[in-house]
Amino acid sequence: MGQPVRVRVSPFAPREQSVPFPACDKQSDKERTLTDVQVSLETGAGLERRLRVQVPASRVEQELEARFRSAARTVRLKGFRPGKVPDGVVRQRFGPQIRQEVIQEVVQSSYSEAIAREKLRPVGSPRIESEPEVPGEGIAYTAIFEVYPEFSVAGLDAMVVEKAEVSVTEADIDQTIERLRKQRGQWQPAGRAAVAGDRVVLDFAGTLGGEPVEGGKAERFAVVIGEGRMLPGFESALVGTTDGADKSFDVTFPADYYEEKLRGQTVTFQVHVHEVTALELPAVDAEFIRRFDVASGDLAEFRRLVRENLEREALAKVQAEMRRQVIEQLLAANPVDVPAVMVSREAASLQAEAARSAGTAQGQAAGAYDEVARRRVRIGLILGELVRAQSITADQGRIELKLDELCRTYDRPDEVRRIYQQNPDLMSQVENSVIEEQVMTWLMERARITTRSVAFGQLMGV
Fold this sequence. Notes:
Strand content: 15-25%
CATH class of the largest domain: Mainly Alpha
Structural class: alpha+beta
Oligomer: single chain
Order of helices and strands: EEEHHEEEHEEEEEHHHHHHHEH
Shape: elongated
CATH architecture of the largest domain: Orthogonal Bundle
């Protein structure tokens, strides 16, 4: 049985906590007393906030005394019975360590208290700038952090979405079956000159001004004439070649070629053809049909299954395009500021994902993904605000259906389902995916839908 695949949470899904916090108090820039803590709030550039917190010495000392008493009851020192270590010894041996621990805890607790009272929604952990301690005056520090932007989602009443109406035709089914035949075809010696669609196995070497072109040489390289994988002019020059033939021809590189020094240059290629092969297609018979889990081998049943698959593909494509239109309109109507820390975190995630896909330890620098990351964060914030404002929660029935969809492709779906249900991270991703679907459904219900007839091939780009 294969291992369960982690659900890829769409960038449309909220990536941060969506539990609503109280709105920020617009009058909070003035200093105020929070129990025994003094707090003042400054608004920095964009979403940055600087929260200065001053904790009186009395609170610090009260915490210290409580900790010393607790330590005296639990500390173990050679020469003293448990719980009988004198207070002076405890202070002498452990005073600096205990004081540091207490100060850290006081900073944490006072920061949480200040954030709650100021009604702020911080993004991530703050950067703490501690001020020098003054005897008898307690501790003071400044917490620097970004907050979530506050906004109401605009543009909901003006959304217009075009829906493609697609009908799968018999010709679409024929073309699909033809592609399946080609996928299972066998390359056989052609015994003739090469034509479009043939595969030519060859050696080639390119020169520019008589000098070898870096990366312009290969041996026993397979080229299918007409696929367009090689430069314009290279494949067409192979038409008419035969087994064992040698040929020389020039190819002019495009002006927008990725390697600058070759742009617009004419390179001479020397090729030696090893073999010309033609694709032999299998007959659409019972044996061929059974390869696609149609046990009966019946052509009509096979065509029905092909139609159903094409209709599912078309529906998924139509829905994805409608979602794209909704997202683009929401982005245009909601130019929301995004916290830099969220962009950095998303860019790092994209970088790691790209490196994994490429099979390398490190991909491009995280900064190369900033624009994509900023867009994803904006989408997440906008949809997250909709989720919060509309109190959308994951529907349990949809969660069960999503689990069914994820698990049914495995040999032991019940076992895979248990793995998901016992893993909070996996279940959280499933729930986020379901919430995304629900919020998109909510948006679609409010959009004005127009329709346009589209051919299946045009929709799918085939």
